[in-house]
């Protein structure tokens, strides 16, 4: 039983949870459905009784055998024919695995937890790396007047589903971090077993540390700049050391790929450079070797969301007398300084360092990839944003965690439990056709049942909240009438920064009140969310919402539930009919809460941002129109978008929910639920997301890592230095085509001839390209495609080279071309990698231009 409790697979494996619940249902509920706490509270007499219960022992044997098969059997990853990475280290500042291990604050952590779970289901050999925060993130309650209050419970690792990593003699394994002044920060390593994936959590609260050092891992996203810097140094540098220690002690393969989930862990690249320098590589060669096997994921759509530190603070913590003493401090600083147009050159930017230390980078939705390319374009000067080498992998959610058991059972009834589990974990289907065979009545009964379960949950939590606010039980009889299982239910739950606009629904309170109290088509709203402890503006938004929800006229129709977390979310998503999301576009990187709702047949009502911008269809829900023009006043924008929200609810959503067809059921609503499950469900799975990471990022990074042996790393570093120093001599001197624009026709092919100067470089160092495509109103090429040109013989007596190639006019409308030169080397992941580009000067004859209107 203890072994089952220490593997967090129980958090998404229903049979294991059912087994623990059967030990003592009341204690299971009192323990917050945490097996470790349950086993610590069960009397020995009850355990002795279970040891004699043959039925219980048979169930226990079956669950243990199932876990053993899960842990040791081949899965999707082992069935791939390509040589995939032996191991991948995945670093994140927070992980949302289960409410029993509260080491998360919001979407970033939940995504990281789902990434680990999906990797486990797929058999991906991941090692997770994070910090163990002794206070976790804060617990939230409300004052009588609705102001957020924070509480920081102390977490004892020995009471959590963790095991301490130990050296062979039984002493705790530790990693050191050097601090200024010759001091050392020690951190022990705790292991949370997430299915097949070990999650290493570093803990600085150890006896060897002074009080200040012990508090480095006290709170998630707490403290000032130096505190945050130390946390991020421990996560990145200490995290690499923890991985090395774990692999040494357990025999786990060393990672070939290091994945940095957001910039907080970016210092991991410095530690890996230091490792290679200790083996004899110079800094530049080590940098190339590290970059080859590093993947960086950005989740931030605005510069203000990135951790930035003063140059002097970073400099003080590195070099002689501090961490990485053999590393030149100026080289470290150059990796993170904002030395590009529009940057602040005295600030050290963690995301910038992450990008400079990674050969592959991605955003977390198609739109966010575009936003990221524009935001970081200064790192690749001369390239259009669409060519900045940041791709995108749209986030997904772990179905076994977020899909209600009732929804799973309905699907499993159609195709069987094993096939259903496989479909949910692999994420390799475009559609779930079996949903079409589920009768309308069954879908509608399921939705009402889930709504009723939510109503019961809300009343229980609301009663507890009001008691915390100082109310007596005698005052709370009205709570028994809060919400109605037959009323259209809207959910809104997330962090509460201003851009997510918690109170947009309150823009016209009278109109909202009319919606809540409509005599024939009422709506009810469940709201939850936490503001950062230092964000008073976010707390004021919560207070405004709470005060509205406290009004006796509407408090049975709208509620605010404090202390939003995983346990609440798992009840909230399935029980809602509509999931509302109204951020300022395009500030939502992905926004996975709506995905979790969709997995349960809840329809989305959202601004076209994040994942919804990518996958929205009228079959799945509704898009809130946006007023995001450059000159729109923020207040005016909120007025327009809130009015659009009210219009959708009044004119389209509530009529569809309440209208009944010939069967007596809301046929059109049920069809939208069916399409959400069958067409959107397969897209939003974390299994699909992790497979994309493996195929598009991890596998190429592993190949690049293997190719970057010490000699190759030195050669590439020397080549880059030579190209950078000689690039001033690279020119496009003359461009001509075999036809003039009046004779150009669709489908014709022109011969392109280009004269270039390469200076000290040769044809093997560059690629000369023709770039052609549609021309916009300002005569700029949009949506262009590049065609490599080939050298036509040796250089002329002036040392100039002639390049030739065909140019096909393959599109109607305005069509143009230009020519450019990029560095080229087999070990580059992208032609833009060096940020170097040569294009025709303005006075070059026929340097490019319009070929066809």
What would a concise description of this structure say?
Belongs to the glycogen phosphorylase family. The chain is 39% helix and 18% strand.
Radius of gyration: 29 Å
Strand element count: 28
What is the share of helical residues? 25-40%
By DSSP (H or I, 4+ residues per run), the number of helices equals 28
Our measurement of the CA-to-CA distance between the termini, rounded to an integer number of angstroms, reads: 74 Å
Keywords: Allosteric enzyme, Carbohydrate metabolism, Glycosyltransferase, Pyridoxal phosphate, Transferase
Function: Phosphorylase is an important allosteric enzyme in carbohydrate metabolism. Enzymes from different sources differ in their regulatory mechanisms and in their natural substrates. However, all known phosphorylases share catalytic and structural properties.
Catalytic activity: [(1->4)-alpha-D-glucosyl](n) + phosphate = [(1->4)-alpha-D-glucosyl](n-1) + alpha-D-glucose 1-phosphate
Cofactor: pyridoxal 5'-phosphate
Give a structural overview.
It catalyses: [(1->4)-alpha-D-glucosyl](n) + phosphate = [(1->4)-alpha-D-glucosyl](n-1) + alpha-D-glucose 1-phosphate. It holds the Pfam family DUF3417. It comes from Streptomyces thermocarboxydovorans. Belongs to the glycogen phosphorylase family. Its EC number is 2.4.1.1. This protein is an alpha/beta fold. It is built from 28 helices and 28 strands. The strands form six sheets. Strands 1, 2, 5, 6, 7, 8, 9, 10, 13 and 14 form a ten-stranded mixed sheet that branches. Strands 17-16-15-18-19-20 form a six-stranded parallel sheet, sandwiched between helices. A four-stranded antiparallel sheet has the order 21-22-26-25, with no helix packed on it. α7 packs across α27, α10 crosses α11 (283-292) and α19 (440-468) crosses α22. The longest helix has 29 residues, at 440-468. The radius of gyration is 29 Å and the shape is globular. The model has no long low-confidence stretch (mean pLDDT 94).
């Amino acid at each position: 039983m203890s072994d089952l409790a220490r593997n967090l697979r129980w958090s998404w494996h229903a049979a294991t949870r059912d087994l623990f619940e059967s030990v003592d249902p009341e204690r299971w509920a009192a323990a917050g459905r945490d097996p470790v706490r349950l086993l610590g509270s069960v009397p020995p007499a009850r355990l002795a009784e279970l040891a004699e219960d043959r039925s219980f022992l048979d169930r226990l044997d079956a669950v243990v055998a199932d876990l053993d098969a899960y842990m040791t059997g081949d899965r999707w990853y082992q069935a791939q024919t390509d040589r995939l990475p032996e191991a991948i280290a995945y670093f994140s500042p927070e992980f949302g695995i289960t409410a029993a291990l509260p080491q998360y604050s919001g979407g970033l952590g939940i995504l990281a937890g789902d990434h680990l779970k999906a990797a486990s289901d797929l058999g991906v050999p991941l090692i997770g790396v994070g910090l163990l925060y002794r206070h976790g993130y804060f617990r939230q309650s409300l004052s009588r007047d609705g102001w957020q209050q924070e509480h920081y419970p102390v977490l004892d690792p020995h009471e959590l589903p963790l095991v301490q990593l130990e050296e062979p003699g039984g002493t705790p394994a530790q990693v050191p971090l050097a601090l200024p002044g010759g001091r050392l920060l020690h951190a022990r390593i705790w292991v949370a077993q997430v299915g097949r994936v070990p999650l290493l959590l570093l803990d600085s609260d150890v006896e060897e540390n002074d009080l200040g050092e012990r508090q480095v891992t006290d709170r998630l996203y707490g403290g000032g700049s130096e505190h945050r810097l130390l946390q991020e140094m421990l996560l990145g540098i200490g995290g690499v050391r923890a991985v090395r220690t774990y692999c040494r002690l357990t025999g786990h393969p060393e990672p070939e790929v290091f994945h940095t989930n957001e910039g907080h862990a970016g210092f991991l690249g410095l530690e890996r450079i230091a490792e290679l320098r200790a083996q004899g590589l110079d800094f530049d060669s080590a940098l190339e070797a590290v970059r080859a096997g590093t993947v960086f994921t950005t989740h931030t759509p605005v510069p203000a969301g990135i951790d930035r530190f003063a140059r002097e603070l970073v400099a003080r913590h590195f070099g002689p007398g501090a961490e990485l003493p053999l590393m030149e401090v100026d080289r470290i600083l150059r990796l993170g300084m904002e030395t590009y147009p529009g940057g602040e050159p005295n600030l050290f930017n963690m995301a910038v360092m992450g990008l400079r230390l990674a050969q592959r980078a991605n955003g977390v939705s198609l739109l966010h990839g575009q936003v990221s390319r524009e935001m970081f374009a200064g790192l690749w000067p001369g390239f259009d944003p669409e060519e900045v080498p940041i791709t995108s992998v749209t986030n997904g959610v772990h179905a076994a965690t977020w899909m209600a058991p009732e929804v799973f059972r309905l699907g499993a009834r159609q195709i069987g439990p094993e096939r259903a589990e496989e479909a949910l974990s692999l994420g390799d289907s475009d559609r779930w056709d079996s949903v079409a065979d589920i009768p309308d009545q069954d879908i509608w009964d399921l939705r009402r049942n889930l709504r009723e379960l939510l109503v019961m949950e809300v009343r229980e939590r609301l009663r507890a909240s009001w008691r915390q606010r100082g109310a007596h039980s005698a005052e709370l009889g009205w709570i028994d009438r809060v919400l109605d299982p037959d009323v259209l239910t809207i959910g809104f739950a997330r962090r509460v920064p201003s851009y997510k606009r918690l109170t947009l629904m309150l823009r016209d309170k009278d109109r909202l009140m009319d919606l809540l109290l409509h005599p024939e088509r009422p709506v009810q709203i469940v709201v939850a969310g936490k503001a950062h402890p230092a964000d008073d503006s976010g707390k004021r938004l919560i207070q405004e919402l709470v005060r509205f929800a406290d009004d006796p006229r509407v408090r049975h129709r709208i509620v605010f539930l404090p202390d939003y977390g995983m346990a609440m979310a798992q009840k909230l998503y399935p029980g809602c009919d509509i999931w509302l999301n109204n951020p300022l576009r395009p500030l939502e990187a992905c926004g996975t809460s709506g995905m979790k709702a969709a997995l349960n047949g809840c329809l989305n009502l959202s601004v076209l941002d994040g994942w919804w911008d990518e996958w929205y269809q009228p079959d799945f829900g509704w898009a809130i129109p946006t007023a995001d023009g450059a000159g729109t006043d923020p207040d005016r924008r909120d007025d327009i978008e809130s009015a659009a929200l009210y219009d959708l609810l009044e004119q389209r959503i509530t009529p569809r929910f309440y209208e009944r067809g010939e069967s007596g059921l809301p046929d059109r609503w049920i069809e939208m639920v069916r399409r959400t499950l069958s067409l959107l469900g397969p897209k939003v799975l974390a299994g699909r997301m992790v497979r994309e990471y493996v195929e598009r990022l991890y596998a190429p990074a592993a190949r690049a890592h293997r190719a970057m042996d010490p000699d190759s790393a030195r050669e590439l570093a020397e080549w880059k230095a030579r190209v950078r120093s000689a690039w001033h001599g690279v020119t496009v001197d003359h461009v001509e085509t075999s036809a003039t624009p009046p004779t150009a026709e669709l489908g014709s092919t022109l011969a392109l001839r280009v004269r270039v100067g390469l200076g000290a470089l040769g044809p093997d160092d560059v690629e000369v390209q023709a770039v052609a495509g549609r021309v916009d109103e300002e005569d700029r090429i949009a949506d262009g495609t590049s065609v490599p040109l080939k050298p036509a013989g040796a250089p002329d007596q002036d040392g100039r080279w002639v390049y030739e190639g065909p140019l096909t006019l393959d599109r109607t409308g305005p069509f143009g071309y230009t020519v450019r030169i990029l560095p080229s080397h087999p070990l580059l992941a992208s032609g833009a990698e060096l940020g170097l580009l040569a294009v025709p000067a303005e006075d070059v004859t026929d340097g490019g231009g319009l070929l066809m209107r």
